[in-house]
Write a structure and sequence with these properties.
This protein is an alpha/beta fold and about 325 residues long. Helix 3 crosses helix 5 and helix 6 crosses helix 7. InterPro entries: Proteasome_assmbl_chaperone_2, PSMG2_sf, Rv2714-like. This is PAC2 family protein. It comes from Streptomyces millisiae.
Length: about 325
Amino acid sequence: MIELEGVPELVDPVMVAAFEGWNDAGDAASAAVAHLEREWKAEVFAALDAEDYYDFQVNRPHIWLDGGVRRVTWPTTRLSVVRIGSENGPVKRRDLVLVRGIEPSMRWRSFCNEILGFAHELGVEMVVVLGALLGDTPHTRPVPVTSVTSDEDLAVRLDLEESRYEGPTGIVGILQEACTHAGVPAVTLWAAVPHYVAQPPNPKASLALLHSLEDLLGVGIPLGDLPEDARAWQIGVDQLAAEDSEVAEYVKSLEEARDTAELPEASGEAIAKEFERYLRRRDGQAPPGDPGSYLRDPGSGRTRPRRRPSEGEQGPQEPGPQDNED
C-alpha cells in the first residue's frame, strides 16, 4: 500500500503525464508538463526509485555542485501536485497531479502499476497522457492534435477517437492500456511534429497540446511566453526552409495537401475554440455550461476521498496488443 504523507485531500483530481523518449518528438509533451509545473508552481511529493526502472548507461545520472558540495541527480519520474483556484475565490478549486519523467528502460508493467497506485491513492478521476510523434505535417500550419482513448464509453461521451493502432509502442501506449485494464478513464493527446524539423525544442507543438488539454478539462492554462516562443520557432524554421529550395518545395507540397484535406468549416471551428480558450484564461475556469470538460461538477468544491485498493484487488494486467499512437 502506498502512503502519501503531507499531500492534502484533492478536489476533482486529474493526472497529467508525459515522458521523455520515444513518444516525445521534439520534447513537445514533456515540455508541456514542465510548463504546467513552472506556471502553477507545482510541489513535488513523490519520485519513483530510479534503480527499479532505469538503465544508467542509457540514461546517465548528472553530477553538479551545490555550494561546493558535489551532488548526483538520478534519472527518474517525479509526481507533483498543483492546486488551481480556491474554495472561496472567483476561480473554483480543481487539482492536477503532474507526472513527468523518462521512459523507463525496464519493468514497464511494474512502472505502470506504481503510477496507478498513486492515482488510486489520490482519488484521480482521469489520466491524461501527452505524447508527440513525427508526421507529414507542415510547420506553417496549426499543429494537429489527436485525442484517443481505449475506453469505448469515454470515446462516445467525449467525442474522442477510439484507438485502432497496432504495432510497436512506447510507455505512453502501455500506460494508456494499463489504465483501461484497471478501469481508470484515460485519454492520450498526440501532437504531430514535422519530421523534417524533429530536433527539440518545439514550443509550437507544446502549445498545441496545452490548448487541447484546456479543451478537454475546461480549465484556463496560463501560457506565459510560450505563444511568443512558438512564433519565434516558426520564423526560425521559415528562414531555414527558405535557404534550401528542395525543403521549401517539400513544405509547399505539405501545405497544399493539408489545405485540401481541411474541411470548409474547420477555420470557423478553430476560431470558436480559440475564443473559448480566451474566456477560460481570462476567468481561470470553464465558462458556465461548457460541455467540453470531463469533470462533471467542476464548481462544486467537492473533495474526493483518496481511494485505497481493497484487499485482493488487482492492479493493471498485461496490456493488450493495441496501442494508441496514430
